[in-house]
């Protein structure tokens, strides 16, 4: 959000870039401003009366940073906040006059609720990686990005397995992942145009790949995976991964005892 007019003063052409999302307050649709520079959360006075909030006017508070002069809050009220349709929070908010949004949710809400702002993607990130698109922002990661996931749990002895890939013409670039105990490499089939991801167990013990484990991402030329730990085919890091996978495979082959005749 905008803190003390920072964007408006230092970058006039960007001052409108505020982290606003849609949510519900007491089951009524509302515009919420996520302000990382605010220590308190404030509910608009008019909106509070419209949704039937009981305002405790015996408690008032003075606040600085919203306007040039001291800002007075007329009371407090308890509000039900609903995000992403099913995440519900109950919290006491200060009540005051606001313009442009129905409520300001400051750090006293965002930190306990586990909300963070992804400015690159233009989303508010909630627990369990639930994302809410900010108002006025287009998604950085479009529908042309397709993950490559494990369909069912797979147990891997020190060796490798293959997962069938489906080439996506709209997303021609492939990114692959690795973990501490396994590494993913790209393999072309011997017959036809089928391509595979080979997952190699580079450890000394058996491992299990859980269902829906993401092994790679198909992306457009200007896209990149949302999560960290992915590298693009042909990159120097990917070549290092190929060497690691090859070394693990050779180690397994060399450790097998040879048969001897009697």
From TrEMBL:
InterPro entries: Peptidase_aspartic_dom_sf
Transmembrane segments: none
Pfam family, one: gag-asp_proteas
UniProt name for this protein: Peptidase A2 domain-containing protein
